[in-house]
Design brief:
The protein is α+β, with helices and mostly antiparallel strands. The protein has one domain (41-208): NADH Oxidase (3-Layer(aba) Sandwich). The chain has 8 helices and 6 strands. It has a 4-stranded antiparallel beta sheet with strand order 1-2-6-5. Strands 3-4 form a two-stranded antiparallel sheet. β3 and β4 form a beta hairpin. α2 crosses α6. The longest helix is centred in the middle third of the chain and has 22 residues, at 82-103. The chain is globular, with a radius of gyration of 20 Å. The relative contact order is 0.20. This is Oxygen-insensitive NADPH nitroreductase.
Amino acid sequence: MYSKGKVAYRALPLPDRRELAPEEMQRAAEAFRALMAQRHSVRAFSDRPVASEVIATCVAAAGLAPSGANHQPWHFVAIADPAMKARIRAAAEAEEEKFYAGGAGDEWLAALEPIGTGVAKPHLEVAPWLIVIFAQRYGLTQEGERYKNYYVPESVGIATGMLITALHTAGLSCLTHTPNPMRFLNDLCDRPEHEKPVMILAVGHPAADATVPEVAKIKKPLDEILTLRA
């Protein structure tokens, strides 16, 4: 975290160390890959409740992410209030209408066609939780003085990935949603001007009739995403 004034470097012994034999490492890597292969973005959610303690624990895991200068430039707003979710849906759909009416451009809309998205976003109300992720473009001390944050998009991106992974590990599904523009989320979530909304995660259990786009199961093969220089 940011500390005002001169702060000296102090080294601590590594507090946690995992030691796995080579074969255990491979088994652990394969087990994790298999777990993540079961992660799917869904657009149809059940209204089955999810305990706030589960959401809080997943956000706490995201908060352990590495960040530039350890400034942790993120804030998460978890919303279960039905009236607030309805307001977010209405505002998001208003932006989506402009997007699909031509604001996105033909190429972008064509790329989205196989995903099956559209203006209507009922999941923003049905999902028991919405988590709005904010990136803090700069920080503020308790005295209101600004300080610079570093590698903000990278840091928030890592934390968001850890949050999605934590939610999946807890048995939940989620869907990323990025209406453009998103400034309405600052007002709805009562967040300050220097925080930039990055995305909304709809979180919950998938509906009994939930589906995924066929194209979403097509992933690049390993030889396209990995170059080994051994």
